[in-house]
Amino acid sequence: MKPITRPQFLIAAPASGTGKTSLSMALMRSFARKGKIVQPFKCGPDYIDIRFHEIAAGHPSVNLDTFMASEKHVKQLYRCYSEAADICVAEGMMGLFDGYDGRKGSAADIALLLELPIVLVIDAKSASYSAAAQIYGFKNFDRRLRIAGVIFNRTGSERHRMSLGKACEDIDIPCLGYIRRNEELRLKSRYLGLDISRKENRQTIEAWADFIEEQVDTDLLLEQTMCPLPVCDAPAAKPQNGRLRIAVAKNRESFAFIYEETLAKLRELGTVVFFNPETAKKLPRNIDLLYLPGGYPEKRAGELTGNYYIYEDVRQYIENGGRTLAECGGMIYLSKGIADEKKTRSMVGIFPFTVTTAKDKKRLTLGYRQLEYNGQQLRGHEFHYTQLENDRTAAPSVIQVYNALGEPVATPVFRYKNTIASYTHLYLGQADILQLWNDPNTPNKP
Question: Which of 177, 203, 228 is the last residue of a domain?
C-alpha cells in the first residue's frame, strides 16, 4: 500500500470521567461541519459512544479492540476505513494504559499498533502547575508513544490557564487548548455511557462544537497530528455473491448496539434488511437469518409489548427452525417477559425465564467474554444491570463462558432449535457466522 498522510490522533486521558467523549464528539462535529470527511473510531468494546460518534461525524464509528479481534484485523480495519477520510479521530477508553490485563488491549497499545499520536485530555478542575508531573509521567512511561499535545478540561481563571500553560512549556509538550467549565453542556449519563434516547443530544453536540472552537487551537492540533496511515497487508477480498436475506432488528434504543464490523460480515452473506420491532407489523419475508442485537428493551417494554403483531411472526420463524442470533437485549426480547417492581410485560416467550429490572435485584455485570462454540473461538463483551428470574434449570447453558483472563463466569448461552441467545454482545468481524449453526444436535424446547 502506498503511503497516505493525514491528520489522525487518539484522544486519551489519565482516567475515565475527564471528558474524552464530549471532546471527541465536539472535535468530530467541528471538523465535519467545515466540510471535512471525519472517520470516527472507538477503542474497546463500547457500543454506546459509537452511536454519538456517528451523530457527530456523519459516519459510522468503528471499534478498535485487540481482545475481541486480532491485531492484524484491527490494523486492516483502521487502514480500510481511514483511506477515504480527511481526518481520523479515535476515542480511547478508561485511562491511557488501562487494559483487560494490565495494559494489554489498552488505548496505549492500540496507539502503538496504529502509530497514532495521542492528544491527552487532563481534567484541571483541582490542579494547576502540578499537572506538569502528571503529563511528564504519561510522556515518559512509554517513550515509544508520541504525545502530540494536551487539552486541559474544566479550567478556571486566566491565571489558572497561565499556570497550566507553564506546565506544558516546562516539559516541552504543546498545549492545544483550555476548555472552560460548563456544567450545562454535560450530557446526561445512563448506565455506563450516555443516554441515547434524548432528542436534544444532537443540539448538545452542536453546542459542544461551538464551545470548543473558541478554546481549542484546531489548526495546531491538525498540524501536530499529521502522519502516515499505518502500513499493513491488504485484507482478503470479500465475497460478493452472498445470497442470503438477513433481517436485523434496529432502532434508537431497544435494538441499538451493533458493531459496525458485525454488519459488514452479515453483508458478505447477502442482503441485510432492517426492521423495528417496536413498529413493524411483520417480520421481513423470506429471510434466512434473524439477528436481534443488544439495546435497552427494558426501557421500551411498553412499546414492544404494544406491538404484539410481530410477536407471532418471530415466534413462528423460530419454531420453524429459522436461524436466529439474539444478544443481550435480543435475548430479553425472546424471554417470557420483563418484570419490574409493579408488573411484568410479556415478551415473545421462546425462553422460559423472566428478566427483572427491579431495583432491589439490579446488579451490574460487565466484562470481556470468550467462548468456543461449534469449533469456533468467539469473543465479545457483556454489560447489563438486568438479571434472569425463574427456574433456569429448564433452560441450562449449553456451554461454559470465560472472562478475558480465562476464568469461568456464570454467563449462560441458550440454544433452542436454531436460536442461540446470550447476554454477550459478540464481535463477529472475524467470525464464520454460519458455522454457529453447523451442529445438528439442537436441544428441544423445555
Answer: 228
Q: Is 277 helix (H, G, I), strand (E, B) or coil?
A: coil
- Quote the pLDDT of residue 438: 85
Whether residue 442 lies inside any domain: the answer is: no
In a domain? residue 237: no
Q: Is 189 exposed, middle or buried (0-12, 13-18, 19+ CB in 10 A)?
A: exposed
Residue 175 annotated among the catalytic residues of the structure: no
DSSP 316: H
Integer Cα distance of 40 and 77 in angstroms: 12
What average pLDDT score do residues 205-230 get? 94
Strand 289-292 relative to strand 324-327: parallel, antiparallel, unpaired?
parallel
What DSSP string runs through 4-51?
-EEEEEEEE-SSTTSSHHHHHHHHHHHHHTTT--EEEEEESS-SSHHH
Residue with cell 469473543: 379
CATH code of the domain containing 185: 3.40.50.300
According to DSSP, the residues that pair with 337 across neighbouring strands are: 346, 354
pTM to 2 decimal places:
0.92
Contacts of 81 (CB under 8 A, 6+ apart): 39, 41, 62
Per annotation, catalytic residue among 43, 168, 232, 328? 328
Whole-number average pLDDT of the chain: 91
Which of 228, 252, 280 delimits the end of a domain?
228
- Domain coverage including residue 78: 5-228
